[in-house]
C-alpha cells in the first residue's frame, strides 16, 4: 500500500474512511464553486476567496495524510469525524466573516455540515457540534456588526441565527434516531454472523461428538480422492465400529452411551495425525481418512486407535465400563469410486467383528462380491 494510492485496497475500514473524506472533499469543491459566484457578484473579495481555498486545502491535506499514514487507527476517533467537523465549522465561520452580502444564504452550509453529523454522531455529540456552530455564527454576527455597524442589519442577522438555533435540536433528534438504527443494525449483524457460524457448524460437525458429520467426512473423502487422482498420492480409510455398543445403552442408559461416544471421539482425535480426518459415519461407526498413507501403515495407525479405545476409561461413568472396536482398513485404488473404498473398509470391520471383535483387518484389493454402497 503506497501513500499515493488514494483509496487503500487491503483495509475495508480505512477505505471507507477515505471514501467519506473524498465525499466531504466533493462538498468543499461545490462550496468553493459557490463562493466563486459570490466573488463574481462582488460579495466576496477575490483574495479572501483564494485564502479560503488555501485554508480548505491545508486542513484537508492534513486529514488525508493522517488517514493514509494509518495513525488515525490508534486514536479514539479513527474516522476523524469530530476533528473534520470542527475544522469545517471553523472554515465556514472564517468564510462567512469575509462575505459582505448574502451571508444568510451561506448559513445553509452549516446545515450541510450538520447533515453529515446526523449520520455520524450521537445525539450528545451532535448537540455539541450544533451549539459550537451556533456560537461560531453568533461570533460572525458580533464581528461584522463591530466592524461595519452601519451596513449590518442586526435584526435580520439575529432572526437567521434564531432560525438556525431551531434546527439544532431537530437535528439532534434525527441524529439520535439514526444512531439507534445504526446500533440496531450492528446488533443484527452480530446476530447474523453468529447464526451463520452456527449453521456452518451444524452443516459440518456432528452435534454430539463435535467431529465431522457424515456429510462432511464424505465431502472430505471426495476431495482426497480428487487430490489423489491428480497427484498420484495414496490414501487409506478406516472404518471403526464399536463392538456391541447397544449393550452400553442397555446397561448404563442412552445418556451414558452419548458420553461414551463423545469420549471415544475425543480419544481418537488425540491419536490421529493433524492431517487425518475423523468423522462420525453413523451411530457408533467412525470413518477416518489417512492421506498419503498406504494400507499397511494405515493398519498400524488403526491398531493405535484400537488400543486407545480399548484402554479408554470413561470419566464420570461406571469404572467397569470397557469398549473395544473392530476396524477395517482399505486403501484407495486410483479411478475407483468412494463407495468402493468405504465398502471394503466396512466389510473388513464387519469381518473383524465376526472374528470376535477388538481387532484390525485390511481388506484385500480384490473387493468381495458382496460389497455394495453403504
Ligand atoms: N447413546 C447413543 N446410542 C446410539 C447413538 N446412535 C446409535 N446408537 C446406538 O448404537 C447401537 C448400534 O447398534 P448396532 O448397529 O446393532 O451395533 P452394536 O450394538 O454396536 O453391534 P455391533 O456393531 O454389531 O457390534 C444401537 O443401540 C443404537 O441405539 C447415539 O447417538 N447415542
UniProtKB/TrEMBL annotation:
Entry's SUPFAM superfamilies? Nucleotide cyclase
Annotated transmembrane regions? 21-40, 46-67, 79-97, 103-119, 126-146, 158-178
What EC number(s) has UniProt assigned to this enzyme?
A: 2.7.7.65
Instruction: Identify the species of origin.
Output: Nitrococcus mobilis Nb-231
Q: Which GO molecular function, any one, fits this protein according to its record?
A: diguanylate cyclase activity
Catalytic activity as recorded in UniProt: 2 GTP = 3',3'-c-di-GMP + 2 diphosphate
Does the record carry NAD as a key word?
Answer: no
Identify this protein by name.
diguanylate cyclase
Kindly give the SMART domains that the UniProt entry links to this protein.
Answer: GGDEF
**PROSITE patterns per the UniProt record, alphabetical:** GGDEF
